[in-house]
Design a protein that fits this description.
This protein has about 425 residues and is an alpha/beta fold. The longest helix has 21 residues, at about 390-410. The chain has 2 domains: about 30-100, Alpha-Beta Plaits, CATH 3.30.70.340; about 120-410, Aminopeptidase (3-Layer(aba) Sandwich), CATH 3.40.630. The chain is built from 13 helices and 12 strands. Belongs to the peptidase M14 family. One of its GO terms (molecular function) is zinc ion binding. Involved in the digestion of the blood meal. It comes from Anopheles maculatus.
């Protein structure tokens, strides 16, 4: 009887596409600052037994901030908890469902693929296939693996000539961070169509490798079932589904900032590369690593530009001074566009400890000299549910940042 029940639970959890879309009416989102060991231990226990709470970041250390979604039936409990622990909190979002409802104001007006709305996996893949078909001499597409649920894992390469330095971009490894793939597709389109000589130079004199959707099962689940979903969709046990793919890479795996608890949003997996999506990306990267000079990982939110390494006790890379100099130039160019301020620096120092991430893996295993994580807009007003009318401004400032990045990296001899 237990085996049958467990099987049914796993099947129900894994087949989220048929479930009703979750709603979060009157749910509040609070930013919480962890300052003491007691606060940390208590929040870690709460994450293990959430009873309706949802942690957007796991409590992994003191001196960090995280966001907690509080359901209406927990308002009084949350007030009591914060008072008892003397937690410093800030109300980020008064009604999370209203933010979700306002995310896509143009969804009923779109006729073709563009950047005033967010799209499904199938729509993004169809667009990728169409631009490859339209530009066969400079674009090539490839399927580098299959997701757990059997979806293609697709990459696309832009190359005008052999021997160019390579720039690798991966996006949407965290399912709910829709702005990451929207920005990546906009950047490719701009590299194909821009009349700006500086952008044309980037397109013609660098090879660009894009993974627009590193986690297609998770992205699909955010569209059909739960806008907050972050992980992959491979069941772990009868109650918990999914692994944080950005904690699952086989470099300093489970060495800080990752969870061994299967239901946690930062669960690192039962083993490194347990997820077909992460293993396939690593295998694909190994085929091109000797051609990659720059690697970018696109995420949201917080407005950070982060450098390796993130794991516990990690040394700074030998070229850390150069990494910070390039980051400073990039952040300045982003701010000059629309005034958006990015914090830059070592990921563990300016944000929090992580291990098993893509950037740490590509830099640590393959020796990629310039590896960076972008955490896009905003700083908490909408969190990862960034309104679609910010896609183009976010992408424009990111492009300007990348232009400055490449210019500074060229001065320093990296590209």
């Amino acid at each position: 009887m237990w085996f049958k029940l467990a099987f049914l639970l796993v099947a129900a959890l894994a087949c989220g596409g048929s479930a009703e879309q979750a709603r979060f009416d009157n749910y509040r989102v609070y930013e919480v600052s962890i300052e003491t060991d007691l606060q940390l231990r208590t929040l870690q226990q709460l994450e293990l037994n959430p009873d309706g709470y949802n942690f957007w970041e796991s409590p992994v250390q003191t001196n960090m901030r995280l966001s907690i979604v509080v359901p209406p039936h927990k308002f009084a409990h949350f007030e009591e908890l914060t008072a008892a622990l003397a937690l410093k909190t800030r109300l980020q979002i008064e009604d999370f469902q209203k933010v979700i409802d306002a995310e896509r104001p143009m969804r009923r007006n779109r006729a073709t693929f563009g950047w005033t709305d967010y799209y499904t996996v199938d729509e993004i893949y169809a667009w990728m296939d169409s631009v490859v078909a339209q530009n066969p001499t400079i674009l090539s597409g490839s399927v580098y693996g299959k997701s757990f649920e059997g979806r293609d894992l697709k990459a696309i390469k832009l190359s005008h000539k052999a021997g160019n330095p390579g720039i690798f971009i991966e996006a949407n490894i965290h399912a709910r961070e829709w702005i990451s793939s929207a920005t990546a597709t906009w950047l490719l389109n701009e590299l194909l169509t821009s009349s700006n000589p500086v952008v044309q130079d980037l397109a013609q004199n660098y090879d660009w490798y894009f993974i627009m959707i590193a986690n297609p099962d998770g992205l699909t689940y955010t569209k059909t079932t739960d806008r907050q979903w972050r992980k992959t969709r491979q069941p772990v046990n009868a109650l918990c589904v999914g692994t944080d793919p950005n904690r699952n890479f086989d470099y300093m795996w489970m060495n800080g900032g990752a969870s061994s608890v299967p239901c946690s949003d930062t669960f690192a997996g039962p083993s490194a590369f347990s997820e077909p999506e992460t293993k396939a990306m690593a295998d694909y990267y190994a085929t091109i690593a000797d051609r990659i000079n720059v690697q970018f990982s696109f995420h949201s939110y917080g407005q950070y530009l982060l450098t390796p390494f993130g794991y516990s006790g990690a040394p700074r890379p030998s070229n850390d001074a150069d990494l910070q100099r390039i980051a400073a130039a990039t952040a300045a160019a982003i701010q000059a566009t629309y005034g958006t301020r990015y914090t830059y620096g070592n990921s563990a120092a300016v944000l929090y400890t992580t291990s098993g991430s893509t950037v740490d893996y590509f830099v640590g295993v393959h020796g990629t000299r310039l590896g960076y994580t972008f955490e896009f807009r905003d700083t908490g007003a909408t969190g990862f549910v960034l309104p679609a009318n910010q896609i183009i401004p976010n992408a424009e400032e990111t492009l300007n940042g990348i232009i400055a990045f490449v210019a500074e990296a060229k001065v320093l001899g990296y590209v």
